[in-house]
Design brief:
Blueprint lengths: L1 H4 L2 H25 L4 H6 L4 H7 L6
Length: about 60
């Protein structure tokens, strides 16, 4: 019910921000996949985990 009281523009902005966060996450995952396995492991990532989360490259 609290969500129904929020305005249209606030809901639209929240949706826009959520979409951008997903886009940035995919972009960062793609950039991380360019690193070697040792570097990924040192920072707590695995190549498989990053691939599962999805990737995107921006040109």
């Amino acid at each position: 019910m609290a969500r129904a009281k929020r305005g249209f523009f606030r809901n639209a902005m929240d949706a826009l921000m959520a979409a951008r966060e997903r886009q940035v996450s995919r972009y960062v995952n793609g950039a991380l996949l360019m690193l070697d396995d040792e570097t990924l492991k040192a920072h707590g990532y695995t190549r498989e985990e990053l691939r599962r989360k999805g990737t995107a490259y921006m040109y």
